[in-house]
Amino acid sequence: MLRAVLLNDTRSDLHHGCELVFRTLSNELKARGITLSVTSPPNADWWKIAAVSSAIGKADLVIVNGEGTLHHDAPAGRKLLQASSYCQELGVPSALINCTWAENSSGTESMALKFDLISVRDRESARQLDGLTRKVIVVPDLSLGSLKPDYEQGEGIGYGDSVLRDVSVQLLQRCRENEGTYLPIQFPGNRRHAAWKFVRSMFGKQDVFSPLKSARYADCRITQLKHAVNDTDAFVSRISDLACFVTGRYHGICTAIGVGTPFIALTSNSHKVASLLEDAGLGHREIPLQTLGKAQIRELAHWTPRELRSLNEFLEAASRARNGLFDRLASMARSKNEMRRPESESPESLSA
Question: Could you tell me if 122 and 272 are in contact, meaning their C-beta atoms sit under 8 angstroms apart?
């Protein structure tokens, strides 16, 4: 069995999209004879974690999950990119995958250059990495690999949340006004003091100076706590049963696309939502919340024949690209493993 190390295992964020990404990643690796020996959590100084740094030296492959981190020179993203030179020095193949690349400086780009393979989630990210095109491939978000479309018309309008807190507050208000189904993508889990940590994570230090906003954030987060679904399969099933899902979350949109539920998308904190929809031929489904009315929701609660063609073409292309990515990762790992073998265990001697 080949061994891989994963940096930025986002499951600890308690987010259904992260669960789906990891599910696809681990299943696709396992199908190719690769096991994840060690993973590191988000925003970690991974090189200071003895188990991680030790495992990298013994690994056949290091995979960096770029999900949600590689935009605007974010410190968390630059931490992950340090793995490229670390692996290069050790002679271990490394790949940066499943990332949106947005508004990064040339210094950050030069760190990415040292990876052996880069997989971005959309064509706009590839355009922004124009100088690295020989290494860059486009593979839509890995969560799609754990979802199956079901185009049977559902019932009711679902409302999600957003990484932008004020948009989350407005979405909750719309949900209440329209008597919709509330489906936030994050969940508290079953940890001790989970509810308190879930609510507390909504706030920053600056919020003490805005008591009115803080009250709205608290109401939103407590409502999310009440409506959160801990089980990812149950969350996916509920979205699948909707007539339409309105959300500002990238992975909420991915889930709707993956299960075939009509959706309305709101802008996120980078180009990732707009680029996903452009690549899928569904750009018209991104609508400013301020202009979104009941008539538009009714109209967009159905797929048109043209949309269905675009959706199916996108999902089929995503599947082909995903298979190609994991085949390449497996090839990289096998090449490293063969280099590690003593001469007495070479393929020729084993077949003798």
Answer: yes
> Residues 287, 165: one domain?
yes
Task: Answer yes or no: are the C-beta atoms of 123 and 138 closer than 8 Å.
Answer: yes
DSSP letter, residue 340: H
Do 138 and 60 belong together in one domain? yes
* DSSP letters for 174-223: HHHHTT-EE--SB--TT-TTHHHHHHHTT--GGGGG-HHHHHHHHHHHHH
* Chain-centre distance for alpha carbon 171: 21
User: Is residue 102 in some structural domain?
Assistant: yes
Question: Do residues 21 and 111 share a domain?
Answer: yes
Residue 207's nearest CA partner among 195, 215, 199, 197 is 215
Mean per-residue pLDDT, 144-169: 95
- Which residues form the domain of 270? 152-302
pTM over the 0.90 mark: yes
Residue 305 has pLDDT above 90, yes or no: yes
Residues 170 and 226 in one domain: yes
Are 95 and 204 in the same domain?
A: no
Q: What angle do CA 160, 250, 216 make, to 5 degrees?
A: 40
How many structural domains are present in the chain? 2
Q: How far apart, in whole angstroms, are the C-alpha atoms of residue 77 and residue 66? A: 7
Angle of the 305-340 helix axis to the 16-31 helix axis, nearest 10: 50
**CA 61 to CA 331: how far, in whole Å?**
10
- The verdict on 6 and 141 lying in the same domain is yes
127 and 202 share a domain? no
Q: How many CB atoms lie within 10 A of CB 98?
A: 25
pLDDT tens figures, 75-121: 999 999 999 999 999 999 999 999 999 999 999 999 998 999 999 99
Structure-token match 């060690």, residue found: 38
Q: How far is CA 299 from CA 132, 137, 186, 206, 264, in A?
A: 41, 35, 28, 40, 11
Please say whether the beta carbons of 202 and 225 come within 8 A: no
